[in-house]
Amino acid sequence: MTADDLSSLAISSGLKTRFVGQRVDYYPRLSSTMEVAREGVQQGAPEGTVIIADEQSAGKGRLNRVWLSPSGSVSLSIVLYPSMAYLPSFIMVASLAVVHSIWAVTGLCSHIKWPNDVLVNGKKVCGVLIESGVRGSSVDYAIIGIGLNVNLRASDFTDILPAATSLSDELGRDVSRLELLRCLLVKIENLYLSLPAGDSVYREWRNSLVTLGRKVRVSAGEAIYEGIAESVARDGSLLLRDLNGSLSQISAGDVSLQDINSEG
Ligand code: BT5
User: Fold this and answer.
1) How far is the CA of 123 from the centre of ligand 1 (A)?
2) Ligand 1, atom 16: nearest CA belongs to which residue?
3) Among residues 164, 251, 254, 248, which one has the least CA distance to residue 211?
4) Listed residue (213, 224, 236, 111) closest to 165, CA to CA
5) Which of 36, 66, 67 to mutate to test the pocket of ligand 1 (most atoms within 8 A of CB)?
6) Of 219, 221, 238, 242, most Cβ neighbours within 10 A?
7) Nearest alpha carbon, ligand 1 atom 21
8) Which domains does the chain show, CATH number per domain?
9) How far is CA 206 from CA 134, 243, 260, in A?
10) Given a cut of 70, is residue 262 above it in pLDDT?
11) Residues 127-176: pLDDT tens digits?
12) Beta carbons of 202 and 89 less than 8 angstroms apart
C-alpha cells in the first residue's frame, strides 16, 4: 500500500469509525461524487457511505458552479441520514474536520471563510458543499461534499488563480492523500456524533471564521450587502451590521473581504 493509494480497501481497512467510511466506493475518474452519492441514496446506501474520486470531470460547487478536481486533489461525498435539527451544523462539521485534518497531517494552519471555504494563507484550498433531500419536517438524506486541493499546482489552473492554493503548494512537498482522508473521515464522524451534546461545534466553527469582525461585501442572489460581519447564528447564517446600524441575517452568499488584510 503506497501513501497515495486511494483504493476502497486502503481507505477503510482498520479505520477507527463506527460508520463513516466503513463502506467506500472509489473511482479513478467520475463526473461528480455528489451525483454518484445521490444514486447511492436511491439504492439504499448505508449511513456513512463514502464516494471518492481521484478526478472529477464535472465537479460542482454551489449554484452549479464548476469545481476543478484534477488528479492529485481529493473529491469525496459522504451519505448521512440526520435528523432535521442537525442539518444546519453539517457545514460546520465538514469545514472544522477539514481544518483539524490539515493541521494534524501537515501542520498547516487553515481558517474558514463563511460560508463554505477553507483557506490557507488567505487562499482557497477546499470547498464544502452540502446537499439534502427534505420532505416536510424530515430529512431523507444529506450528502457532505468536500473538494480539497492536495497535490496539485494551482498555477496550472488559471481559472481559479489567484484565489486558490493547494497543500503541496503551501508546503513545497506532496502530502499523503490516504493519511489525510482517513484522518478526515474520523474527524467528521467524531464531530457529527458530538452534535447532540451541545453547542461546541457551533462555537468552534464561529471562532475559526476569518470573516467575523471584518468589513465585507456579500452577494446573495440579486442582493448585495455591505457592512461588518458581526457574528453567525446557530443555523449558520451570517449576521451583518450595515453602515446604518441595522442587522441583516444572510443564509447563503459569496463574501469578499473588504478591509486592509483582504483575503478574498
Ligand atoms: C464550493 O463551491 O466551494 C464547493 C465545492 C465542493 C466540491 C466537492 S468535490 C466533491 C463533491 N463533488 C462535487 O461535484 N462537488 C463536491 P463554491 O463556493 O460555489 O465555489 C466554487 C468556486 O470556487 C468556483 O466558481 C471557482 O471560482 C472556485 N474553484 C473551482 N475549483 C476550485 C479549486 N479546485 N480550488 C479552489 N477554488 C476553486
Assistant:
1) 13
2) 145
3) 254
4) 111
5) 67
6) 238
7) 61
8) 8-208 (3.30.930.10), 215-263 (2.30.30.100)
9) 26, 23, 21
10) no
11) 999 999 999 999 999 999 999 999 999 999 988 878 999 999 999 999 99
12) yes
